[in-house]
Amino acid sequence: MAFASFDNRSAGAPMAEINMVPLIDVMLVLLVIFIVTAPLLTQAVKLELPKASSRPNVTPSEKVEFAIDAGGGLFWNGEPVERAEAARRFGVESQKQPQPEVHLKADQNVPYRVVAQTLADASKAGLTKVGFISEPETP
Questions:
Q1: Is 107 left (phi over 0), alpha (psi -120 to 50) or beta?
Q2: What is the DSSP code (8-state) at residue 2?
Q3: DSSP 8-state assignment for residue 107
């Protein structure tokens, strides 16, 4: 790859080779710039995470299984009850120390009104630990 030659015949002909050195230099400079600036672009958020113990949760042994079937029927630990009786039992359970957990199982076809009435009765009685039980979806 000579720029000057003593041959007069090919002196005026265009050069058929591409000079790759400037292209490689530019590429290496860009590579160095990216290597230097890439760590500066990551933004870290400083957090103080809470400390947690690894001891298992001890669940209270007392719980109330409350179920509502598709027709709106109420069941207290598998025993059919009326709404007034369920409200009375909620009041009795709220007086216990510690309060038992209420596990509410409602059929997916039950009207929301029945579930809302049950939650309102439990809330009026003073129960604070009410949980909804559902089945996990199968993939």
A1: beta
A2: -
A3: -
- Cβ neighbours of 20 (radius 10 Å): 9
pLDDT in tens, 46-74: 777 777 777 776 655 689 999 999 989 99
Q: Which residues of 86-115 are buried (b: 16+ CB within 10 A; e: fewer)?
A: bbebbeebbeeeebebbbbebeeebeeebb
pLDDT score recorded for residue 123: 93
Residue 6 has pLDDT above 70, yes or no: no
Return the closest-CA partner of residue 96 out of 76, 126, 75, 67: 126
Contact between residue 91 and residue 99 where contact means Cβ atoms under 8 Å apart: no
What pLDDT sits at residue 5?
60
- Bond from prior residue into 98 cis (ω within 30 degrees of 0): yes
Contact 101, 63 (CB under 8 A): yes
Pair of tokens at residue 130: 């009410």
In the chain, what is the straight-line distance between the N-terminal and C-terminal CA atoms, in Å? Answer: 66
